[in-house]
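**User:** You know discrete backbone vocabularies at least as well as I do. Would you mind producing a protein record, from residues through to fold? Write it directly below this note and I will take it from there.

**Assistant:**
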Amino acid sequence: MNETASDQPQEEDPFAPARRNMIREQLAARGIASEAVLRAFMDVPRHLFVPPDLWQYAYDDQPLPIGQYQTISQPYMVAVMTELLSLSPNDHVLEIGVGSGYQTAILAQLVGSIIGVERLPTLAQQAQDRLRSFGLA
């Protein structure tokens, strides 16, 4: 029997355990109850939205620098803001200040459409590139 690539087990993202831990210990344990929000956090790899030299800190509950004197918000704050929006798949969102694109990617998992605006050209291009790699731009 010939095995194809699709027959072979997929390698798990090496950051998936850290992401699961973040969801369990930082989000769910602190009251984030929306299954859709928690699933969005599992589906969006935060480390890809920070510089590679900070990947080891990507799933810590802290803001991290993303360049241009800007930061990516700590995961718990992103989760609180997202859950409080009570979004549905029929919603349309305008996000001002996209930064790294992380919040945009989270929101895109929950709504029908999202438009993001970023005033800093370098961050705008980086966010667009990241979001495009997820099929979102």
User: Anything to note?
Assistant: The chain has five helices and four strands. The chain has one domain: 12-133.
